Amino acid sequence: MRNRIVLAAAAAMAMLTVLAGTATASPSGTAPAAGSGRSDTVCTDVRLSGSLPVPPAGMSAQQDVSVGADCVPRLGTVRLVPAPARSAVRAAATAAPATTGRQVRSWSEMYDCCNILMTALYTTTTWDTADNQVSNAVTEVSTHNNREPWNAGWSVKTSGKTESGAKVTAHAEFSYQGIFDATGAWYANTHDTSVQLNGDGTAACQFDIVLRHTFIGWNSVRGCS
C-alpha cells in the first residue's frame, strides 16, 4: 500500500512540471497618512496570474505568491499536498451541488504581511461525463472579506459566475475602507478564477488577482483540488 501511494504521488508530481505563472507590478510612492502606517515602497497595479491542474483524487495542487523587494512578485514552488478537509476550505461552507460525477474546488486567497486573510474567491464545480463530453456542470461560488470593528474593513462590491459550455469563470471585486484608509479609495482587490472541465474527467484552474495597492510581504495562496 505504501509503495502504491508513493507511486501515485510521483505520477501526480509529473503533472506539475510544466506549470508557470506570471506576476507584474510597478512601484509607487508611500501610502497616505491614513494608510498602513508603513513608510515602505507602495506597489501599485500588482497582477498575479497562473494556472494549476487538478491532481488525482485526495490531493491538491497549491502555490504561494508573495510580493517581494522592488514590488517584484515571487512565485513559490507548486506543491502537491493532501486535499484539505471540507471544513478547511471556506468554499465548503456552501453545500456541494447534488450531482454525481467529477468535482473540483479552487481557492484564490490574498493575505497581508501579518498573514491575515483579506479577500478570497472560492469555487466548487461538479460535472458528469458521457461519451467524452461534459454535462450537468454546476458551480457554487463563495467569497471571504475581512471585516473590522465599527462596520469597517474589506467589502464585496460584486461577485458572480459565468458558465459557458465546459468552462466556468468566477469573478469578485473587493473594496476597503477602514483603519488603514478612511477614504475607501486606496485599496481594491479583484479575483478571477476559471475552471476548464474536460470530458475525460480532468480539469485545470486558472487564476488572476489584481491589486490596486499593496505592500512588500503581502502574499497570495491559490489552489486546485
Which tags fit this structure?
1 helix; globular; 7-stranded antiparallel beta sheet; 225 residues; disordered N terminus; mainly beta; single chain
Describe the structure.
This protein is mainly beta and 225 residues long. It has one helix and 14 strands. It has a seven-stranded antiparallel beta sheet, with no helix packed on it. The radius of gyration is 18 Å and the shape is globular. The protein starts with a helix and ends with a strand. Mean pLDDT is 79; it is low at 1-26, 28-39 and 91-100.
Secondary structure topology:
Layout: H1 2-14, E1 21-27, E2 42-53, E3 59-67, E4 73-75, E5 79-82, E6 102-111, E7 117-130, E8 133-145, E9 147-148, E10 152-164, E11 167-177, E12 188-197, E13 203-215, E14 219-224
Antiparallel strand pairs: 1-2, 2-13, 3-4, 3-5, 3-14, 6-7, 6-14, 7-8, 9-10, 10-11, 11-12, 12-13
Structural class: mainly beta
How many strands, which pairing sense, and closed or not: the largest β-sheet? 7 strands, antiparallel
* Radius of gyration based on Cα positions: 18 Å
Q: Percent helix among the residues?
A: under 10%
Compressed to H and E, one letter per element, the order equals: HEEEEEEEEEEEEEE
Summarize the structure.
The chain is mainly beta and 225 residues long. It has one helix at residues 2-14, and strands spanning 21-27, 42-53, 59-67, 73-75, 79-82, 102-111, 117-130, 133-145, 147-148, 152-164, 167-177, 188-197, 203-215, 219-224. It is built from one helix and 14 strands, in the order αββββββββββββββ.
